[in-house]
Amino acid sequence: MLRHATAPARAFAQIPHAILRHSRLSAAAKTLLTWQLSLPADARQCLSDTARRARIGKAAFQRAKGELLAEGYVHEWRVRVEGGRFTTVQLVSNVPLEPAEAAALRDGRCSATPGAAPPAAGGPGIRSVGRQPGKNIKENTSPPTRPVPEAAAPAAAAAVAASAASPQLPETRAPETVEAGETATSTETVETPGRALRAAETFLRALVGTHPRLALSPRTLRDVAPLAVPWLRTDLSAAQIEHALTSGLDDVRSPVGVFRWRLRHALPEQRPAPAPAAPLPPPRVAGMRECVAAHTQPRLFTPPPGSDAVLCPECRADDATPPIPAQPGPPGGGYALFRAARRPRPIPAGSATDG
Predict the structure, then answer these.
(1) What pairs with residue 92 in β-bridges?
(2) pLDDT of 338-353, one tens digit each?
(3) What is 17-112's CATH topology?
(4) Residue 15: what are its φ and ψ, rounded to 5°?
(5) Staple partner for 159: which of 197, 206, 216, 281, CB 3.0–4.6 Å?
């Protein structure tokens, strides 16, 4: 990523990186804090006025103010003034302050101005008022992590795959003591909890090595290792487990918290074993035979159970029916009968009349 920044000559504020990169402060809280720190020393603008000018809604302002109060960047007190009325005094600082330190600054009993201490030319000076944030935010202030080279990616994937496969390797245990006359023919294979935890730690260590935002200390890694054991006992591959646990961690505020929650609550349910497929019925032609009689096309038929018939039912019926005798035809050929029918008949005498 390329960056270009021109140092302003005037009208600028010095904001610590710890505020800009704070992981527990929302954007609205950082806007309120940086706006207040950019105001002149004699400004009397309260936080609600800043939220109104920055166009921060009421609900977002309440959440942002609560975050600043919890982190120690904002302190406020209800003070009674003349006339029996009460007013709210607010203190904003660029470093987290304890309540006692904030009260001392309010009462003028302590100064946090950097120039108030003598220069560090002689003996050691007094540390200025302030404290470190409650949580180590080293992952937010460290320089950008270099991307993993392409050559190292297969090695990381191989480590993940090896760690995922290691819990399924059984550990050999010595056979039980047998009585006289018996023979131990095989050893018993069991999976011990110690081996499963070691495999889970190896798997998590490989994930931490390939995902820089998962800054897990060795103690935290040992604490969450029992949560990874059920994941490694599923039928998911190492790549599927890594995708389910680490996808989208670059867009969240607390990657370690999301990772821990997924280990505890996002384990997929075991899929039921598929039911055995029902055997297919034999084809209908498996029990059919071809008729040995002469047909225009081969004809198949189903013989009766226990029969060795080789003729189809029609052929068997033809063999069982006696032949029908031929009927005698008229004498002579057909052409002679045709010529006799075509011969003209004689005209009887006296049937003709003169015209």
Answers:
(1) 74
(2) 777 777 777 766 655 5
(3) Arc Repressor Mutant, subunit A (1.10.10)
(4) -110, 125
(5) 206
